[in-house]
Specification:
about 10% strand; three-stranded antiparallel beta sheet; single chain; mainly alpha
C-alpha cells in the first residue's frame, strides 16, 4: 500500500491506513499484546501467511505496527502496536461496537454468542 502525499480529508488518511479485510482483525489481535507471525496466523482464521505478511508490512510502513527481532536460534520476531497503532485501534473498537449493535438489531446474534460477545 502506498500512502498518498496529499489528502482532502483526515478520514481518508485513517481509512487508507486500516482499509482491507484483514487489517482491523490484525490490529484487534495485536491489541491483546505482542504476537509472533505464527501466533497471528493461528488466531486469524482464513488468512494466508503471504497476506498476513503483506498487511503487517503495510501497517509497519504507516507507523501503526512495529516488529522486534530477538537474537538466537530459532529466529523469533514479535509484532506490536505503536502508540499510533493504539490510537487507530480506538477507531477499530468503535467499529466493533457498532457492528455488534447492528447484528443485535438484525437478530444475527449466533456469531456474537459463539465469540463470547453476548
Amino acid at each position: 500500500m502506498k500512502m498518498r502525499e496529499e489528502y482532502t480529508c483526515p478520514l481518508e488518511l485513517t481509512h487508507d491506513m486500516i482499509k482491507g479485510k484483514w487489517k482491523p482483525v490484525i490490529l484487534w489481535q495485536l491489541s491483546k499484546g505482542p504476537a509472533s507471525l505464527s501466533a497471528l496466523k493461528k488466531e486469524i482464521a482464513g488468512i494466508s501467511q503471504k497476506m498476513l505478511l503483506q498487511h503487517l508490512n503495510e501497517l509497519q510502513s504507516c507507523g501503526v505496527v512495529e516488529k522486534k527481532t530477538f537474537e538466537g536460534y530459532p529466529l523469533k520476531v514479535e509484532y506490536f502496536l505503536t502508540p499510533r497503532g493504539h490510537k487507530i485501534f480506538g477507531a477499530v473498537t468503535i467499529m466493533q461496537e457498532v457492528g455488534i449493535e447492528i447484528m443485535v438489531e438484525d437478530n444475527k446474534t449466533d456469531l456474537l454468542r459463539d465469540k463470547g460477545l453476548l
